[in-house]
Write the structure tokens for this entry.
Amino acid sequence: MPQEMEGRYQERLARYVAAMKKEKPDRVPIRPFAAEFAGKYAGYNNQQVTHDVDLAFDAIMKCARDFDWDATVGNMVYVWTGLTEAAGLNYYAIPGIDKPPTDAFQYVEPPDEESAFMKADEYDEFIADPTGFIANVWMPRANRYVVPLGEPSTAKNNLAWLKGGMAMLHYFNKFGAQIARLKNETGTVHAIAGCLKAPFDILADKFRGFRQLCADIHRQPKKVLAACEALRPHMYYCAVAGADPTKTVPISIWLHRGCTPFLSPKQFETFFWPTCKKIIEDLHAEGRQVLWYAEGDWNPNLKYIAELPEKSIIYHVDRADPFEVYEKVGHKFAISGGVPNDILAYGTPDEVRARCKEVIDRIGKNGGYIMDAGAIMQDDSTIANIKAMTEFTVEYGVYR
Amino acid sequence: MPQKKQRKAIRPGVCFPWEEKVKEYPVILGDPKIVQKAWEELDSLAYLYLWFCIMQS
């Protein structure tokens, strides 16, 4: 790596890490998560960046070269649908196949008991061995090629297992190279490493479906709690398996449906929080931070989140009031986000600059703040507005 | 992967435990630790494949 690029990388890393530790760096770091926006900026449609992972990587590289971002993610579209098609997974709507090439990919959750990947009477089997359940029960239901145990195998079944595994290795090998490219060619820090989900979210998203799980928390609450507890060590293991071995950048937790209006604070406290909290506490105990990516509005749950150890998370604000977050938990955690995607999509550059100024003035004045959109940036964010967010922060966000 | 009737709690990172696998060998003539290391390393990749399918959005 050229010396100049190494210097730029180290400067950005120091800025990003200081902010995550609630310290005051030389200026507010910028860490956008550019998903389909990157494709739009590079001239690719959504089919191209979702199904051709090399184009997705190239799109991010173009963003990293052109914008003065301190940290980002190598591919925030993230689900490479080439992989999901090779494996035979049946729950994605893919741009260019199931949807117009200009649409974003979608996860299609089974809507009823009949189509759920796990049935209401299968909790005990799941709790006894979640990994075996995934391989032997979940996969045949979530995959158009894999056949259930006891049924005659097929060529498609055999190939689905083989191609799925090979595709994932292929993707992760490419991802490693992309992280190195970001560093060596643009001096950009890879913002996160390792993926965590709350056990309740996984149970809802991938096993029961949220509607069915909502019935379960009334009909068989103890089973739901036991299933979350059975998932907990696996969520922890997977988070650490992909994490930064130097423990410098955080593991990200993508929060789905623990917030209002999906769950009441009481339901959150009972079903969502205990296992989620324990995982974050365990990660903190071994020196790891978690990017608490609070999609939606999690402010009714702030009193619970405040129970987490100091600096164990970086609190990312999406649609909630970021100033309330700062008031209630800003003394414990660094904060990121708070620039609504609505403004980035439909506002003017002046409105974006005004919002960035307000957030920096009220949340970032003493450090511990990272500039970002509220959520991942899809292709509705305008290029002019992302430029405004970036350039304003580089200029105004300097600590003097 | 153990069959359905044999299913019991298996620790994270494991699909087919070494303790089960080793029973398939009448005898291991060389160093069993070398055999175990390779088995467990690749078994953990299979585990990650299954769980990363679950963890994706």
Remarks:
- Chain B has a mean pLDDT of 89.
- Residues 1 and 25 of chain B are 16 Å apart (CA to CA).
